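REQUEST FORM: STRUCTURE PREDICTION
Request ID: SP-0412
Submitted by: Lab K.M.
Chain count: 1
Length (residues): 137
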Amino acid sequence: MSDSISLSADDQIYTTLNCMNCGETLMGRRDKKFCDDHCRSLYHNVTNAAQYNLIRKTHSLLRRNRRLLLQAIGVFRDQNVIPIYWLMQRGFSFQHCTQRIEQLDDTHIIVCYDIAYQKQGTDVVQIFFWSADSRAA
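STATUS: Completed
RESULT:
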């Protein structure tokens, strides 16, 4: 025998709930929070806007860095190194990368998705393609 409680329509307790976005009175399910999909989407978009904007801006900087590194490989294909000022003039962000690998000789390989660079002196970098199983030269 299972225990169940059934209430007649006269015995049910009704509470007035309002949409969390627009404040309109809700009709329907007891656990309903929004009046429609538009209000639900708008509420969550506004609530998460700052977090999404940070992610969107960071991803945009990483994509631009990758695009510039790829462009530099094409422009300087006959040279072993690329001037740092060339990247700086085009808006390269040296603070944004997807991976930083410290070498035994205290140098670093900086990776942006599948393209990496390594400083060679103070004003040039060497750019090369990188994969998870790449090893430093």
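NOTES: The chain is about 30% helix and 15% strand.
Reviewed by: T.R.
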